[in-house]
Structure prediction request, 149 residues.
Amino acid sequence: AVDMRMLVTAIKVNTDLERIGDHSANIAKHVPFLAAVPSFVYEQTRIQDMGRDAGHILNKTRAAFLSQDSKAAHEILPLDADVDRLYKNAFAKIIELGEAHSEYAEGLAYLLIVTKSLERICDHAMNIAESVIFQVDGTDIRHQRNQKA
Prediction:
């Protein structure tokens, strides 16, 4: 059973890492278009906080995966709610700013794409943390976490 869990986990983690890479490439592709967005937008939308949190979550997830630390993986899961909250607030603020400052509409549209990619990166990191828990403990918690959301 342990070998089968390791195989299933490797396949799932590989897929999530590939998706994280896709979202990271998507962010990089859109960064040049964000130069036209004024700095007050970043302050009001807290995009830097999302980026910092995403990096923090990815680092903690990497460490939990490499050490096969189920306890550390469990500690990562609540962090997703913070990023989800930041995303929802940023989304609403970007829409509000777009209505008030139509001259920045194109840059704000790209900013929406970037914020969604950051949120999805964190979702994939959560999937990896769940996979660590599954591999180490043999417990599938995916549906438990989704029901609490």
User: Anything to note?
Assistant: The two ends are 30 Å apart (CA to CA).
